[in-house]
Amino acid sequence: MTKDDDPPIRLAHVRPEGDDMRRHELGEHLQAVSCLAAEFAASFDAAPWAALAGLWHDLGKFREGFQRYIRQCGDPDAHIEGRVAGTDKTHSAAGALWARQYLVDAQGASGEAVARVLAYLIAGHHAGLADWAGENASLHTRLVQDDTRRELESALAAPVPETILKPACLPVAGDLRRYRDDDANDSPPGRFALWVRMLFSCLVDADFLDTESFMSPQRHAARRGFLQLPAMESLLSARLERMAAEVPARGETGSRVNRKRAEVLHTCLRKAELPPGVFSLTVPTGGGKTLSSLAFALRHAVHHGKRRVVYAIPYTSIIEQTAGIFSGIFGDENVIEHHSSVEADERQETHRSRLACENWDAPLIVTTNVQLLESLFASRTSRCRKLHNLVDSIVVLDEAQLLPVAYLQPVVDVLRLLVKDYGVTLVLCTATQPTLETRTGFDQARALRGFKVGEVREIIDDVPGLYADLERVRVHLPADLNATRSWDDLAPEIACHEAVLAIVGRRADAQFDPRTLKKRGFHASSRCMGSAGAE
């Protein structure tokens, strides 16, 4: 065969460059995605699965119709399934169907189980994970359609390299036993589903990153350059030392609060070298919980070789405050703040932080419970993409008592799986710890399949003693909680104190004559007192 007779190069992507088109060779793309996905999945011992998914994910692009289209249109988005109209240009189902055909031939009945997993990953790498069976657009229905069969036949008619079509190393069905949903190994439900999502995350992120490195080299290069965790720990230590040195200058050396904050910090640093697992950090408001929890997380990460720290917080207002504290220590460019307000306001983010929000590939992430928990149960590619970067991380759940009660069981199940299967250290950080240990009783609605007794290790040695030492508020309850009192009755009692915050249950309750308090030296504001009227 002469050089002129060689088959044309098969393309994965094209990129305009001046008057020319740069071309990304399909075989190179498949090999690169395979290697990168395997590298990601190696962190949870699933490299062969991700490698094979990467090798076959764009098998349908070998088909003549797709190659003709991508060469003629010159559209940089031609590779994105869904942007391209017509069945002749789809490509994600061919690899899924090939997995079923080839693996059953190669491995027999066990190959069907392997192929099922790969079908989920490959067929969903653009549109998201689909249910296997169901009335609407199920994966099984898609794989038995004539269009999918023709897509594979057209791809196989092209000169596909044997190293791609029939690789030497294949995953084995025996690996699936580790992730079965059963009670034999005390595994929470959802284990297999989370494992599939983790693999899906590896494939999707690898595909995005290799495509980005070709389509947008400058954008891809912008992902690098974050401070690493040992450097962050050093910066935090230096900041804490400066803060400690400032205490005598303010004449607060003997302050009870400062002494207790120092004890909390010292305890967190000491306990950070304990083995990974589940911890609770129970510190009352004003006890220095934010910086102490960060000190624990960074020391634990460096000591145990963890890859990143993820702070999950229920409210964006608390996130912005926490991220501001962290940015003051490490610099804005080294703290990834990921929540809806940042996504909506480009002024609050940098180009690099926006990229890191896509896959959380940064050492320090501050995000919402919504971003974290919804991603763990998601099917969309954009949501799932970040999941593999939770492996071997430290997840700090700040204000842990605000985990959604209506979904507490699946939330606790997935948190347990992260700890059990993916090397996550979980820190439940709050002043009011929720009870997340297993509980049973007559009322099954209040039962919880949670952590084992003793599995959650408290960092603070004497929590009641710490609360007693930091007590700054005394609560006096009325004899009758149902009795109502008028403002005329309350005014003398309020006036006995230097500062008072009065909270009422309804706006109507705040309607009173401001002169009632003004004549006793108090100021009443419409901002503070609802519709009470301003001065």
Structure commentary:
With 535 residues, this protein is of the alpha/beta class. The chain has 22 helices and nine strands. The protein has helices at 26-41, 47-56, 64-73, 92-107, 109-123, 139-143, 146-156, 162-165, 191-215, 217-221, 229-249, 256-271, 289-304, 316-330, 340-344, 351-359, 369-376, 381-384, 408-422, 463-469, 487-495, 515-518, and strands spanning 11-17, 20-25, 278-282, 308-313, 336-338, 364-368, 393-398, 425-430, 456-458. The strands form two sheets. It has a seven-stranded parallel β-sheet with strand order 5-6-4-7-8-3-9, sandwiched between helices. A two-stranded antiparallel sheet has the order 1-2. A hairpin with a 2-residue loop joins strand 1 (11-17) and strand 2. Helix 2 crosses helix 5 (109-123), helix 4 (92-107) crosses helix 7 and helix 5 (109-123) packs across helix 9 (191-215). The protein is elongated. The N and C termini lie far apart (95 Å).
Name its key features.
Hypothetical protein af1432; disordered N terminus; alpha/beta; Rossmann fold; seven-stranded parallel beta sheet; disordered C terminus; 535 residues; 22 helices
